[in-house]
Amino acid sequence: xARQTFPLYMFGLLFGIGFCLxxxxxxxxxxxxxxLSGLIFTGAVLLYYFPAVYVYHxxxxxxxxxxxSWLIIFAFxxxxxxxxxx
Length: 86
Description:
By secondary structure, the chain is mostly helical. It has one domain (2-84). It contains three helices and no strands. The chain has helices at 2-25, 32-56, 62-84. Helix 1 (2-25) packs antiparallel against helix 2 and helix 2 packs antiparallel against helix 3 (62-84). The radius of gyration is 14 Å and the shape is elongated.
């Protein structure tokens, strides 16, 4: 079971690191509100996903927690794309 979720786990980690680096190296092209929302989004990915993976392997309700956490992250990303970046 750990082998199936390992690529998603690595994706979450690499996305968080890559997004932070992207914001850092392109900070002169973004206004502060956009950067703040990007950091909040990255934090949401890390804060929701990694505990969900931990619970996923130790409790049956972990699958539901993973789904809910990804829905929250997806909703926040839609909000950031359509309302903050525009």
